[in-house]
Amino acid sequence: MDDERRVLCPENRGLAAYVLQKKQEYAEKPKGLSENLERTFVKGYRSVCDAKDPINTLKDLSQIKGFGKWMVKLMKGYFDTAVESSEQEDLPDNRAGKKANGKKRYIPQRNSVGYALLITLHRRTTNGKEFMRKQELIDAADANGLSHAPVGPEKGKGKAGLGHSKREWYSGWSCMTTLIQKGLVVKSSNPAKYMLTVEGREVANECILRSGLPDSVDILSVDEMDPTPQAKKTPNQNPTCSFTMREELPYVDPRCRAQSAIPSDILEKFTPFGYSKEQVVAAFREVSDGSGDKDPSTLWLSVMCHLRQAEVYNSCPDSRNSKKDSSGPFKSQIRQVDLEGSRAKKFRSCNDGSTLNPCSSGSSHAVKACSSSLASDGTKGITNIPRLPPLQFGETFEEAYDVILILDDREKFATKGSRSRNIVENICSEFNIKIEVRRLPVGDCIWIARHKYLETEYVLDFIAERKNVDDMRSSIRDNRYRDQKLRLQRSGFKKLIYILEGDPNHSDAAESIKTACFTTEILEGFDVLRTHGLGETLRKYGYLTKSIYQYYKLRVNDNDQSKGAASCPSFDSFVKRCQDLDKMTISDVFAIQLMQVPQVTEEIAIAVLDMYPTLLSLASAYSHLEADVSAQEEMLRNRSNNVICASASKNIFKLVWGE
Amino acid sequence: MNDHILISDGEDQTTPLPSLSKRARKYPISAILISDSDPTPQKQPPESSFTPIFVPETPLSDDFSVVKCSFGSRALASNREDKFSGKRIISLDSEFEDSPRPETSKKNESVLAGLREPRFGLEAETSEAYYKNTRIPETNLDDDTSWMHEVSFRSSPTNDTIEVVSDQEKEDISVEKIGRKKKIRTTTLPVPGEALPKKRQSKEDKTSAMEEKKLRKEQERLEKAASKAEEAERKRLEKEKKKWEKGKLALKSIVAEIDTKVLEGSIGGLLLSRFSEKGITIHVGPNPIERSIVWTMTIPEDIAPLFPQGPKIPYLLLVYDAEEFCNLVANGKFLEIISRVQDRYPSYTVCCLTNKLMSYVKKREKEEYKNPGNWRRPPIDEVLAKLTTHYVKVHSRHCVDEAEVAEHIVGLTSSLASCQFRKKLTMLSVSANGALVSKDSVDKHLIKKSPWLKALVAIPKVQPRYALAVWKKYPSMKSLLKVYMDRNKSVHEKEFLLKDLKVEGLVGGDIRLGEICSKRIYRVLMSHDGAIKTDDVENGAAFFTDSPGVN
What we know:
The structure holds two protein chains of two kinds.
Chain A: H1 13-28, H2 35-50, H3 58-62, H4 69-88, H5 91-99, H6 113-125, E1 131-133, H7 134-144, H8 175-181, E2 185-188, E3 193-196, H9 198-211, H10 217-225, H11 227-233, H12 238-259, H13 264-270, H14 277-290, H15 296-313, H16 318-340, H17 345-356, H18 358-375, H19 397-400, E4 401-408, H20 421-431, E5 434-438, E6 445-451, E7 457-468, H21 469-477, H22 480-490, E8 495-501, H23 510-522, E9 527-531, H24 534-553, H25 559-564, H26 571-582, H27 586-595, H28 602-611, H29 615-624, H30 629-639, H31 646-657
Parallel strand pairs in A: 4-5, 7-8, 8-9
Antiparallel strand pairs in A: 1-3, 2-3, 4-6, 6-7
Helix pairs in contact in A: 1-2, 4-5, 6-7, 6-8, 6-9, 7-20, 14-15, 16-17, 20-24, 27-28, 30-31
Chain B: H1 2-14, H2 18-26, H3 30-36, H4 40-49, H5 58-76, H6 79-98, H7 100-110, H8 116-139, H9 144-154, H10 158-182, H11 190-246, H12 250-253, E1 254-258, H13 260-264, H14 268-278, E2 281-284, E3 292-297, E4 312-321, H15 322-331, H16 334-344, E5 349-355, H17 357-370, H18 380-390, E6 394-399, H19 402-419, H20 427-430, H21 444-449, H22 451-457, H23 464-473, H24 477-484, H25 491-495, E7 502-503, E8 511-512, H26 515-525, H27 534-538
Helix pairs in contact in B: 1-3, 5-10, 6-8, 6-10, 7-8, 8-10, 8-11, 9-11, 14-19, 15-17, 22-23
């Protein structure tokens, strides 16, 4: 009865097999296969085998003998499955397609909040940790910058708010409900925990592949390996495919478990320091055994300590012994700093790692240098010789220094413990840069070069001032705006950056803000950058930090340059210089007092100072002319040969010696 | 007597006017009057040749006879009459000077411009002749026959007759008044005869002198006009320079030179309409750098020395669409373009302006997301960061739509024009005119009105409320300086002069100004050396350089 025929058209073999499969399914049912039904299947099978032309669509199938409405409906699943498999070549798609009668799986739109949440969950839970908590997930998704709309239910300060709806309870986080409904994410309560399902992880991988996002090499390699056997076996007959799919399921789990042992961010943090992945994995396992489900930052510190202990107490070759000796004094310095209660404790720990492994980090930097040199354009139009920190003869910048981004501690987002602080940390990990928070005498953001062995710090030639639109408006009104620009100009930086955050068109002072931007750029020479919100500003800081490092790293100390070029000031001398700028002399105070008089311009004030450097000297001169008011009024004009106009001369007299 | 009768008969025939008959009735010596008016019939033809305005002058000729009568009466009068006649002569002169002016103006108005000057000269001559006539009666009183001969001699030339007629007519006018007053009847024959020969001599001299005067006056006028024109020109130039220095004409003189490729895109229409609204001049043509805009200033030659930097504005704008920009970045050619621009314009600020860059990238990423292809996001963020860090004076600006692009370019043009004339930030300009008063001050408005209060706030670490306390006690700087400059008080006493002043607290509790603030104010205001830091002065650094006994 079930004799297989020769299929005339090779392309129809799949369809013929499908018909046989359907017949088998019906035969296995409790009802059994009736005579009429069996006859119908046999007729259809023969027609498919005898067809000379390929059957690609349901229309083609309906025109063949033996395929009526019922049979066409039955065969519909094959064509839907075939379309999906041809497009995506993915067995889970086939399976899902069969179950859902050919519907596509849910994939969130690019740069939507669901998209960001899904990818964030995938990245953060690949390395062993199974779930994330709500606030943690929200902050991480915000920091990734994958979503164009804010994720959190509360609008943080400094974020550009895009209104979705006037209802207060609606926010980007509402997408999580959709993800849970679609079966991509599961949730448990008290407290709320969110975890990806297997389906969710596959969808996240799909999103990453489609958008071309960078991901860790291991994860990519795993993703690449999985589809290969599936793709190869897809053209085979269906029974074979289903068998292969079943076989693969047990293999996926062990790999996921093995790979999920280490969070990706910890790997990203320690790899640049020269630690091997095996070392990091081993240390993390030991630490995670000791502690329960804690925050990655805590585990991060523990892993750091464990790695250092392993290095110190394990047997070392001679070179390592020499490194150990050299790192001794730095340890003591670090301890002193810890005693002082430095706010940059975490980041100094990072630097400790780099300090302990100078050669290793140098080699890793060398690798980066090679790759970046290959990618570089080679068309740098630098017209000025940059100021460099001190370098040994023949030493390159990257061999000696790290570039660190310093944020002012008066910035609200930079304060420790704030919610937006997490954004800063995520930027730190994403861009692989170091960020510290200190009190800056001028500006909101500077970059320093810190020596890898000596721990000395030098201020590089870049400074940024950040202002959002509302700040800008009030600053223009009460004149802080001009005062701050003047202080930035006098601070000695060569590259002045002014970042305007937010859209000035929404402000009622839009014209004055735009004019101020033009004046700042054209007249004062600032580089004015526009961003939409705090997240974009911080990402801009990240890109600038990497670019500054690129700018300096291949600088070499030549005798000619060292003689001609000036050196970067140290951080302490920079702070002192800025404090000195705020100090005034007696003549400066007198000049400012003169500037308060109507009709007195800057030239007039300077002319008065040339003749009378102090207020006392001017008052004495007026007292000598007592009882002759007209002579007193004209005194400054006469003595300056009309450089000081009559009205200004009279007004100054009124201030100093008028009744 | 017979001759007189004959002459009178002739006049009756020629002058039928009724006015003559009336006058003959008034005066009994009608025969003498008629004989004196012999030249009258000759006058009429020249009058007719001139404009009709001379017709009203006919009554003046009748007055001529009256003049002669009055002169005769003077000659025969006694000493008293001589004195009176002298006074009257003075008054006559003044009257005569007044009377011809309206006539002159009338004649000048009617007569052609070319004829005005000779008329003016004639008037001058007549006035001088009249003055000499006043002196004649005293010297020549008995030469009756010579007067008659002179009269007959003058009647022959027409021009001379005209001159004489005009002179006599004016004399008649003044004499009428005298005649009415005196009412004395005497013969007047010898008087005009004496005056005539002297008039001839003086007229010739007067003519040449007057011509010289004319030339002098004309030269003076020309010189004055020239000097006035020069002064006006100077003032105009100075005003223009001031306008330029203030930058009022900047927007009118700036010219935007736009590359044709910029206008070919979707931005062109909006940009042109915006520029025309503002009235900014545009020059469209191929620029050395593609898709660029550069600006120049059209400056008049007079004002060019004020701008040593010349008409070029060191700013260049590159305008790109999103797709073109992404292609340049992906191919690695964008930085080459920037380098080429900097080679061509070494000292210029370069700004790269893109339109719809972010929305374009998002759109392409979404398309790539749905239907995977070969497109990859170019490293835009890295390249833009590199512009900021690796290059000097290279900026970037990203607009969301064409309207924002046009608005930015027009705003940039206006700012480039106005910033050429603005002063840069300096320490003094930042704190001018009360700018140093902080916004938190409750008495901000009060302080801004008083220069003395602002001067107090300018002292470092003196808060506005401290300044108010000092101001209430010493409302002017002089009142405080007088106390500080008083030699009878000790330095220590002056330093703590202000310590007990009441300062109004925020909540309401008063506190004292304090010793430190009082000392600070004294030492800053009374410092002799302007170069010391205020922090050092507050600690008493001035005492090391000066002897304590100076104050």
